[in-house]
Amino acid sequence: MSELGTWLHVKAAGRDLLLSTLDLREVVAPSPVAPLPGRPRGIQGVVIHQGEFLPVLDWKNLPGCKEPSTSTAALAVLRPRLGIPLERMMGMVDVLPEGWRETEVDDPAWPWAGAAGLIGGVPVALLDAERLIRLLRRFRSER
Amino acid sequence: MDSSFDDVWAECEDLFAQARQTLATLKEPQPAHVVQTSVNALFRATHTLKGMAGMLGFPSFSRAAHRMEDIFDLMRKGRLRSTDSLTETLEAGILALESGLEGLRRGRPEPDDYLQSLRRELGELEALARPAQGGAHDLSSLLDLPSETLKALSDYERTRVTAVLMHGTPIYGVTICLDFATFDERLRAISEAMGARGELISTLPWDVPEDREGLAFLLISACTDPTPGELSALEGEILGTTLLADPARVPASLRDEAPAATPAPEPKQEAEEPAPVAASAPEVEILRLPVHRVEALEARLMGVGQLRDTASRLMRQAQATDVEKPLALMGEIEEGLLEVQKSLLQMRMVKVETLFARIEPMVKSLSRDLGKPVKLTFVGGDLELERSLLGRLSEPFLHLIRNALDHGLEPPSERLAQGKNETGSLRISASQQGRNLRFDLRDDGRGFDLARIEARGLELGLIKEGQPQAPEKLLRLSLEPGFSTQERASQISGRGVGMDVVRSEVEGLGGEIHLSSEPRRGSLVRLTLPLSRAVVSCLKVRCDSQVFGIPLGSVHRVQAGRQVLRGGDQVEVLGMSLPLESLQACLGLPEPDMQRAFVVLTQQGGAAASVEIALGVDEVVGRGEVLMRSLPELARSPGIMGGSPQEEGILWVLDPEAVMGLAMDSLMRRVARV
Questions:
Q1: What is the rounded distance in angstroms from the CA atom of residue A52 to the CA atom of residue B632?
Q2: What digits encode the pLDDT tens for the residues B367-388?
Q3: Which candidate in A48, A82, A143 is best for mutational testing of the B interface (most B CBs within 10 A)?
Q4: How many Cα atoms sit within 13 Å of B394 on the Cβ side?
Q5: What is d(CA B588, CA B227) in angstroms, rounded to the nearest whole number?
Q6: CATH of region B350-529
Q7: Which of A53, A81, A136 comes nearest B643 by C-beta?
Q8: ipTM for the complex?
Q9: How many other CB atoms sit within 10 Å of the CB of residue B492?
Q10: Residue A87 within any structural domain of the chain
Q11: Domain over B533-673 is classified CATH 2.30.30.40
């Protein structure tokens, strides 16, 4: 994983998270999510984004996450076309190369968080887009 | 690849499309001047491709295009005659260049020789066109023109004069005088009219008579009768017409050589019924747009549609007394929007026959090279596929066809010994299955050799010794990277890369590949590819507050309001008892206590037998056309084919085949619970 770059520090699913700007297409205002009958686990439904359906992540189906306590303030659109509901955006941060640590395998968030960056001395999980997509695909195949 | 070259790639694509169309023209009998116009167009196209490849930094491609250009040059100079086999070779050459270009576009390295597989044929053509000892003849001196004028003729024009005279066509000169203000437009019109009557060999400046003002030209044309009055010329524009050269003056010894090196003879019916040809069809201006611009327009239209839906909903909620007319207008806007969306969708689509037209020359060329006669059948050419798929499917099809002809079909002697027809059969059919386009490639050859596949699978460690393998699993092994049962790679196939390429390309398009085979009876390769959007005629039904669309093609009957129904019931339809399952149960939604309507879904079975099931819904809303968008991979849900934003929210379009499967599963669970 590259340790260089800029990170978006957000609050989602009741916890602090880092999103790599390299994984982000854009952050947009939230719109009502259309429920999808028989939706796969990890997807709460779709919104229309740039004329196409955009699947929206369902945090509560992800290990190590709980149902968001507040309403969605923004939607981060990842490059692999997935919408991530955010409760709050704290701002852009830089993490020093020595400020990273790998996520422990026994951490419930391990299937989607590749590492944690130290922000003000506190480890904040980094959402790993590739791992997350793999996890969602696994959910689909397990159905 | 640098996006600044997008226009260059796009122009190359256009040139290939034109070249294919022009070559298709040459397959039919055409008047000599049409053949000449077509060959000239092909010469120009390959010349431009050569230049563009040089600009993009692909020297090997440029060399190959140059070689093709040379062949067209030999044809236009009358040193190669347009025949079926020549046209097939040229088609194969154009196809090889086109598929090479597609590879380059995707960042593949340049091969040394794009025309490797045609080396023998092209060499023979070049040898055939080589002038006999003593060099090529020049009969331009037979033209009744001043020597200074003769000197103005180019080499190409001299070879054309020679070729048409040897062919027995007279050459006329038409002198015209045109007004300064409009000469370019008028010259073009008169030249086109002359080109339509014969071959316009040259246009030369001419002396303006003393009593006239303007610009004068001499048009040198090979035709049987120039008839100046019919040349769309205005009064006074034509100064005169003279016979410049009579083919009777060509020495008899040269006339004898003509059949080997002249253009195709003019068909007898030419004067009465000129064949329709692309070369003389009116030019259509092509507007090329980057896909993202069309997508942005589609997104904007979708936004406008959502605004309309919101306005319509607000009007209904306002409960005003005079909303009927505005609502009717909203309905008209909705219809208009759908029409525009359909038109935009149409821009993305091409007929499947376009793909078939690319495949046909591949098959003919391979069939000839391998000495295996093949009866090729296409079905479903009228269906449409997305233009973006077209380029990406050519290579997979090339691999599949190579495999079918090289490994699948037996040589004629072997077929005869097996009691089969000497000519093999290859059937390529396209059909639309829900949101998917399905291609079946079926041959009547020897089928896949499962024993050899198993042996190779063991050798590569893909399967373990002693474990029985299902035929389906063994067949899928042949799609693994580097898998080939051929001990030695032939020039046609067997390098172990083909099927892997097919699989990765098809899966990259979100599709699937399925193989099946019967020993000595043949094999079937089925490619299933999703369409990103489609206009679907639907029956709209409601369950709770959600509206669904069922494609009308699968709806056999609709019945509503007679009785209260529940999932698991049996219903009587036209004297038949059918199982009923609620749509909610199929999709995993909360099941209602009762339902008042059902839709009989039908699915055509393989041997004309059909399967029917009754699907319980809360209400049948009506029918209509919707523009359906596919769901992205991460959101794909069983039974849902796609969705369409509507006034009441997203209408989910059901996949009837999948819903029937879900209904059967649900009914089985009910039985198991009892």
A1: 9
A2: 888 889 999 999 999 888 888 7
A3: A48
A4: 22
A5: 79
A6: 3.30.565.10
A7: A53
A8: 0.90
A9: 17
A10: yes
A11: yes
Of A2, A1, A54, A51, the C-alpha closest to A27 is: A54
Chain A nearest C-alpha distance from B68 (Å): 42
**In chain B, where the domains are located:** 3-129, 140-264, 350-529, 533-673
Full domain range(s) for residue A18: 7-142
**Could you tell me the fold of the domain covering B3-129?**
Four Helix Bundle (Hemerythrin (Met), subunit A) (1.20.120)
3-state secondary structure of B670: helix
H/E run at residue B416: helix B412-417
Report the alpha-carbon distance of residue A83 to residue A25 in Å, rounded: 10
pLDDT band at B444 (very low <50, low <70, confident <90, very high): very high
Q: Give DSSP secondary structure letters for B14-53.
A: HHHHHHHHHHHHHTS---HHHHHHHHHHHHHHHHHHHHHH
Q: Which residues of A touch B652 (CB under 8 A)?
A: 36-37
| Smallest Cα distance from A89 to chain B, Å | 25
Q: Cβ–Cβ of A53/B629 closer than 8 Å?
A: yes
The total number of structural domains in chain A stands at 1
In the CATH scheme, what is the code of domain B140-264? 3.30.70
| Helices and strands, counts by H and E, chain A | 1, 12
Q: How many angstroms separate the CA atoms of A16 and A22, rounded? A: 19
The position carrying tokens 């120039």 is B226
To the nearest whole number, what is the mean pLDDT of chain B? Answer: 81
DSSP B474-519: HHHHTTSTT----SS--SSS-SS-HHHHHHHHHHHTT-EEEEEEET
Indicate whether A1 belongs to any domain. no
- Residue matched to tokens 């609050």: A11
Instruction: Tell me the nearest-neighbour CA distance from A55 into chain B, angstroms.
Output: 6
Gap between the Cα atoms of B447 and B461, Å rounded: 24
Q: Would you state the pLDDT for residue B254?
A: 64
Q: Do B650 and A46 touch (CB under 8 A)?
A: yes
Question: A46, A56, A137: which to substitute to probe chain B, counting the most B Cβ within 10 Å?
Answer: A46
Q: Map tokens 């079918």 to a residue.
A: B404
Instruction: Return the number of other C-beta atoms located less than 10 Å from residue B313's C-beta.
Output: 13
The three-point CA angle B355-B359-B363 to 5° equals 170
Residue type present at position B298: E
A37 and B546 within 8 Å at the Cβ level: the answer is: yes
CB-based contact B628:B536 (threshold 8 Å): yes
